[in-house]
Design a protein that fits this description.
The longest helix is centred in the C-terminal third of the chain and has 25 residues. By secondary structure, the chain is an alpha+beta fold. Helix content is 57%, strand content 17%. The protein is elongated, with a radius of gyration of 19 Å.
Length: 77
């Protein structure tokens, strides 16, 4: 858990085991409530199932391709 005072945000990063444990997840509710009452945004980050390297690579390639397409369109206008 990381509390960012300046941006009034709480980040909770769960492991795969925590993500799949309903008792653990239920135990987080008091934390959510405590920080929401203090006007913090509570963000919970859950692990995915895919290969992080491959998915990040694919996302960066997609964004690069879209940017290049937009630059070409702008140059043709």
């Amino acid at each position: 858990m990381e509390v960012r005072e300046q941006s009034r945000m709480v980040e909770l990063w769960l492991t795969q085991e925590e993500k799949n444990d309903p008792v653990f997840r239920e135990g987080l509710k008091p934390i959510y409530q405590k920080y929401r009452e203090q006007n913090y945004l509570v963000a919970v980050f859950l692990p995915g199932e895919g290969d992080l390297y491959q998915q990040t690579r694919d996302l960066l390639l997609y964004n690069r391709r879209k940017l290049a397409e937009e630059q070409i369109r702008s140059g043709l206008s």
